[in-house]
Specification:
By secondary structure, the protein is an all-alpha fold. It has 3 helices and no strands.
Length: 91
Amino acid sequence: MSQSVLIKDTTREEREEIVRRGLNFCGDGSCEQCSGCSMGVGSIDAMYQPYIDGKLELAEVNMLHAATTFTLGGGRSASAAPGTSTETNKE
């Protein structure tokens, strides 16, 4: 059984370790100002501090980052559904 990462089930120190372990997937061991991966957060404080502080769940932090960072192909924002356009048809 895996350990819960929910705020209610962890201490601040455990959340810091969860973030550290999660960002260590590249094998470097240090993400401080790295920006070498698609996360591009530079510092764990910049992105994961609300989780570490117990203000947002880990999943919420990741969803907020994805919603404001990633775009679909063709330059459309993530909020635009495929096959739709924000332009009006003027004939």
